[in-house]
Amino acid sequence: MAEIIDGKKISAQIRGSIKEETARFIAETGVTPGLAVILVGSDPASQIYVRNKKKACEEVGFKSFEYLMPESTTEEELKELVNKLNHTSEVHGILCQLPLPKHISEKAVIESISPMKDVDAFHPANVGRIMTGDYNFLPCTPAGIMELIKSTGVEIAGKKCVVVGRSNIVGKPMAMLLLHANGTVTMCHSKTADLKKECLEADILVVATGKAKMIKADMVKPGAVVIDVGMDRDENGKLCGDVDFDEVSKVAGYITPVPGGVGPMTIAMLMRNTYTAAKIAASR
Ligand code: L37
């Protein structure tokens, strides 16, 4: 039976140390880290994530600024808000929760965020810095996954790492972080010829496809570290991941649950990035 990687617990520990550091930082500088979270429309999953992010801010002692905008918001209006926040000194981090409504260009909005306040690390300037390894911010979900892997004690260097899914917010940066940690990285996607064969070779398997329970026990190498980024619904409408947890946990060495795995880590890393942004702003 696999050991369950407790993302909820690890996230709480990290948020605890950020809370202590923040109290010291505020005492020394008089600056309170501030995060602006923008949500456009009423996607129910996004509403939950944004609520969790706001709660985490309050818990660690940050200011949070919430902007709930109607589905009908125009791209111009959204960019105007971002521009105002770019110039607001109490706001150190700006997060615009994706996905955005179809009539708004995500690319245009991301590019309107000041790279210094881009705590999601989605701006092309920050994406480029991740490629070269010279960065202030890492994207929250891949950064959180690195912490989860670290918690197992399994060394990444020299290991075969397989990332399933090639999105800009998870798969691609994830592969880059594993590469920086000296893993031998394979990226798989919908056109991969033999997904089962690739996955079976993985010592570390990260799955971010959005397809409920697609990774089965016969696709996982015994003892592997399995990280499940999925936030899916099963046939009964219950929250589940991209990995068939009940089956795969019989084969894997370590596995993350959904919920309580990667999700809470995404939020802990957002707090870390916001604190970093405030520290950089205060030192200039
Ligand atoms: N930074 N993250 C950032 N920017 C975005 O634009 N979409 C997006 C993003 N993704 C995101 O917020 N993901 C996310 C996923 C799960 C949680 C939080 C954030 C989370 O809190 N998950 C809980 C359970 C939530 C639930 O009950 O539905 C968990 O335990 O996994």
From TrEMBL:
Gene Ontology terms: biological process: L-histidine biosynthetic process; methionine biosynthetic process; purine nucleotide biosynthetic process; tetrahydrofolate interconversion
Binding site for NADP(+): 165-167
Sorted UniProt keywords: Amino-acid biosynthesis, Histidine biosynthesis, Hydrolase, Methionine biosynthesis, Multifunctional enzyme, NADP, One-carbon metabolism, Oxidoreductase, Purine biosynthesis
Annotated GO CC locations: cytosol
Domain Tetrahydrofolate dehydrogenase/cyclohydrolase catalytic intervals: 5-120
SUPFAM superfamilies: Aminoacid dehydrogenase-like, N-terminal domain, NAD(P)-binding Rossmann-fold domains
Domain Tetrahydrofolate dehydrogenase/cyclohydrolase NAD(P)-binding: 139-280
Top-level taxonomic group: Bacteria
CDD domains: NAD_bind_m-THF_DH_Cyclohyd
Pathway, per record: One-carbon metabolism; tetrahydrofolate interconversion
Coiled coil stretches, renumbered: none
Example of a GO MF term: methenyltetrahydrofolate cyclohydrolase activity
Family: Belongs to the tetrahydrofolate dehydrogenase/cyclohydrolase family.
Quaternary structure, from the entry: Homodimer.
Reported function: Catalyzes the oxidation of 5,10-methylenetetrahydrofolate to 5,10-methenyltetrahydrofolate and then the hydrolysis of 5,10-methenyltetrahydrofolate to 10-formyltetrahydrofolate.
Name of the protein this chain belongs to: Bifunctional protein FolD
